[in-house]
């Protein structure tokens, strides 16, 4: 970390100073509150909050190109607190000292370009940003690193103690919350609520493995959310869902990384995002707005929000072209393979409405769009992506289906470059792939497996029952040679291999 070799104009800024003046602001009545309190909604009107910084004008005094250089050179630092989302410390949690920051390896996930075959199939150039390569294998770690760091900050100031953190989840939030809380154990304990039999076994195993108390309840995610909201209003607990404004703040890092990955050039770019509880799309838009207002980027990318027809309240809201006539109505969800987005009453809907309005105004035209896709297209496009070198979850499939839909509706064109959010690792949702390949997806999902997409293992047995090895009965000598030749010949025939000369 040779700071003396860094350019003179960025040396004073390389190690960020604690200088932000953050506060909560209500999206309903605009009331302001101190961040040194545990708040999730406005005490006056019960509306959700966003975190603002009174120091934003000072940030704008540093020229955009200098900010670009600061962030580029910070990549060279070996300070753990600045390796993750807090590389952008001044725009995320500028009041938090480096020693209060929790870093478990989150952020700076790879952007992987689609290969030629997949680009041709889709009709334009695009990339996946693999957020499944975060520590708990989903994008939720961005917001959780921020939320848990904020709690550590309050602990370090002796403002809170003996913390019990709670969250409702469709799987990914619970995994992230339990993981980050366990890092601060025993100072913080976690409890998660999951809808019974609506979470994959892989996702269920994660909070259990991290030591969280896991409660399964009947119903869907929206029911779990109401219970944790009730708990957070009556009892002294920390709410770790995206109703927590610190979660939104951390997830803004996704935007900052995209800007940096594409050399700060957002011209002719479109960012495709699946929508569940609507925190992620809110954060992504807000992040781009902050960088745009600080002149770090000189234009805003298009934002395409995607929802399944089985869970589409945001899409339904924006079907009404007249803003004055729009009315948000929660929907009853149906089973969806994009399980993490199966939410009918997203808590961040007010944030979406407010930030979308500002985003379009800054872009001087409509720059945020919403599309609806079928369950069939989600599953088919996920399989297509992963057959071409990606590790996209079903929400990543939802994004790709949304990109195709947006292209067909002329919301974007084939001269633009798209960046798709693979929110989690494919392994988390492999049960749906397994059901698809076995043609056992329940009828409620409305998915008809395409035989061309099905891929199942082939069991190869030798003809001679005397040369079948087991763990207890190992073959030797001529019998083992016969076994190897027999199986090799059968595989070569299946693969239509030609003998080498």
- Shape type: globular
Radius of gyration: 25 Å
As for the CATH topology of the largest domain, it is Rossmann fold
Name the beta content range: 5-15%
The helix-and-strand class reads: alpha/beta
Low-confidence stretches: none
Q: Name the average pLDDT.
A: 95
The helix content is 25-40%
Number of domains: 3
Biggest sheet, strands in spatial order? 4-5-13-10-11-12
Q: How large is the count of helical segments?
A: 18
List how many beta strands DSSP finds: 13
Major sheet summary line = 6 strands, mixed
- Highest CATH level, the class of the largest domain: Alpha Beta
Q: Mind telling me which CATH architecture of the largest domain this is? A: 3-Layer(aba) Sandwich
Distance between the termini: 56 Å
Structural features:
501 residues; alpha/beta; Rossmann fold; 3 domains; six-stranded mixed β-sheet; four-stranded parallel β-sheet; 18 helices; 13% strand
């Amino acid at each position: 970390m040779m700071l003396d070799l860094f350019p003179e104009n960025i040396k004073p800024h390389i190690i960020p100073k604690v200088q932000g003046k953050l506060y909560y602001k209500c999206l309903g009545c605009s009331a302001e509150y101190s961040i040194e309190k545990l708040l999730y909604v406005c005490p006056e009107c019960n509306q959700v909050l966003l975190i603002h910084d009174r120091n934003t004008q000072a940030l704008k005094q540093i020229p955009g190109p200098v900010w670009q250089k600061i962030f580029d050179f910070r990549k060279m630092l070996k300070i753990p607190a600045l390796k993750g989302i807090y590389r952008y410390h001044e725009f995320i949690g500028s009041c938090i000292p480096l020693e209060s920051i929790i870093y478990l390896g989150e952020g700076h996930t790879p952007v992987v370009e689609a290969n030629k075959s997949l680009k041709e199939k889709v009709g334009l150039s695009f990339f996946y940003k693999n957020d499944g390569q975060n520590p708990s294998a989903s994008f939720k770690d961005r917001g959780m690193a921020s939320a848990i760091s904020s709690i550590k900050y309050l602990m370090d100031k002796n403002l809170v103690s003996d913390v019990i953190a709670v969250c409702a989840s469709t799987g990914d939030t619970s995994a992230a919350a339990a993981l980050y809380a366990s890092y601060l154990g025993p100072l913080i304990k976690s409890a998660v609520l999951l809808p019974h039999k609506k979470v994959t076994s892989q996702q269920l195993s994660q909070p259990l493995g991290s030591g969280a108390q896991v409660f399964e309840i009947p119903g869907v995610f929206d029911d779990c959310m109401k219970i944790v909201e009730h708990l957070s209003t009556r009892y002294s607990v920390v709410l770790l869902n995206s109703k927590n404004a610190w979660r939104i703040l951390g997830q803004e890092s996704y935007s900052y990384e995209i800007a940096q990955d594409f050399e700060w050039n957002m011209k002719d770019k479109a960012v495709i995002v699946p929508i569940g509880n609507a925190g992620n799309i809110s954060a992504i838009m807000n992040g781009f707005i902050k960088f745009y207002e600080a002149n770090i980027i000189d234009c805003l990318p298009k934002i395409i929000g995607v929802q399944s027809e089985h869970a589409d309240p945001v899409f339904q809201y924006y079907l009404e072209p007249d803003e004055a006539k729009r009315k948000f109505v929660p929907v009853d969800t149906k089973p969806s393979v994009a399980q993490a987005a199966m939410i009918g009453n997203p808590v961040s809907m007010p944030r979406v409405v407010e930030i979308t309005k500002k985003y379009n105004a800054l872009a001087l035209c409509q720059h945020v769009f919403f599309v609806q896709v079928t369950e069939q297209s989600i599953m088919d496009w996920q399989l297509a992506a992963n057959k071409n070198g990606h590790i996209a979850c079903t929400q990543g499939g939802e994004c790709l289906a949304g990109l195709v839909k947006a292209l067909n509706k002329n919301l974007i064109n084939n001269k633009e470059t798209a960046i798709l959010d693979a929110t989690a690792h494919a392994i988390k949702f492999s049960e749906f792939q397994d059901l698809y390949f076995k043609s056992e997806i329940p009828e409620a999902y409305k998915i008809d497996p395409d035989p061309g997409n099905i891929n199942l293992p082939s069991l190869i047995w030798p003809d001679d029952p005397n040369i079948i090895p087991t763990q207890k009965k190992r073959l030797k000598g001529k019998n083992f040679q016969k076994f190897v030749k027999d199986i090799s010949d059968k595989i070569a025939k299946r693969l239509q291999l030609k003998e080498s000369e």
